[in-house]
Amino acid sequence: MKAQPLDIDIEAELVRFQARRVTRRSPGRHLSEVLHYLMNVIDPKRFANGPIDPLLAQGGFIWEDVLNHVFANQLGMKQIELCRDEIFVTLDGFNTAKWRTREAKATKISANNPITSSKFLHWHMQMMGGCKVAETEECELVVLHLNGAYELAGGKFGKTVGKPWLMWFSKREIEDNWRMILRTRDRMDEEGV
After folding, report:
1. pLDDT, position 22
2. Which of 36, 41, 115, 126 has the fewest C-beta atoms lying within 10 Å of its C-beta?
3. How far is CA 61 from CA 23, 108, 112, 122, 124, in A?
């Protein structure tokens, strides 16, 4: 048997692919940009390490695409983009029967962490933003924990785990979150970010 590496820079190709994917979005300020900026302020140690790993990001996009395909076939749902207060929010889907948003996430964070943990704060803020624009207080979240719960210990990963959640947010949580998003958007505009 023989093997020779191909002269292809996979990371560069994924960066180009993801850049093309973003061009399908409406021009303007997007919730993801606001949250990225905000998380750099709130937790710079964790979030200020530059752009996300393109291979990891692509795994998350694949998970979103697979779930969107499944939900579209079963329930007629696909990703939708909404706008409120000049901020675009892309929902992974919307359950019209239950009036809930849908989100899909892939992560290396341990499945042992409670979904209400601050480790998932950026997700919580995103889901509450989606709830605000969709005028609901509920979100169906499906998480793919790539490394399971790290249950093998010693730095070894566990079995990949998929966990579905129904997230509820109070009206006050949603309103407080949206005010913070608007303040952050305004600060970004002032700074020219």
Report:
1. 63
2. 41
3. 15, 14, 23, 17, 18
pTM of the entire predicted model: 0.83
**Single-letter code of the amino acid located at 74:** Q
Residue 181 lies in a domain: yes
Instruction: Please state the domain count of the chain.
Output: 1
Q: Which residues make Cβ contacts (< 8 Å) with residue 152, sequence separation at least 6?
A: 158
Long-range contacts of residues 152-159, Cβ cutoff 8 Å, at least 24 apart = 158/111
Residue 91: pLDDT over 90: yes
Vertex 66 angle, CA 94 and 6, to 5°:
145
Asked if 88 contacts 31 with a C-beta cutoff of 8 angstroms, the reply is: yes
Domain CATH for 80: 3.90.320.10
Answer whether residue 111 is part of any domain. yes
